[in-house]
Amino acid sequence: MRRSVADALPPQDLAALDRLLDTDGPHSILRRDDLAVRTERTVWAARREN
């Protein structure tokens, strides 16, 4: 994901993203207790009428 947004972000935002993605760093997203990850997936199913 980082590679796909790297060209669109200003240097300070890219540096902040790097700090969040650094799993060994003190600011890693894995160490934050003020964030929650929520995902959603929509699945459509259909069938043909005979």
Verbal overview:
Helix content is about 30%, strand content about 0%. The chain has about 50 residues and is mainly α. It is elongated, with a radius of gyration of 18 Å. It has one domain. It has helices spanning about 1-5, 10-20. The mean pLDDT is about 90. It is built from 2 helices and no strands.
Total helical segments? 2
Task: List SSEs in N-to-C order.
Answer: HH
Note the beta-strand portion: under 5%
Number of strands: 0
Spans of 5+ residues with little confidence (pLDDT < 50)?
A: none
Structural class, from helix and strand content? Answer: mainly alpha
Overall mean pLDDT stands at 90
Total tally of structural domains: 1
Distance, first to last CA = 43 Å
The description of the largest β-sheet is:
none
Question: Looking at the structure, what is the overall shape?
Answer: elongated
* Radius of gyration from the alpha-carbon trace, in angstroms: 18 Å
Query: Residue share in helices?
Result: 25-40%
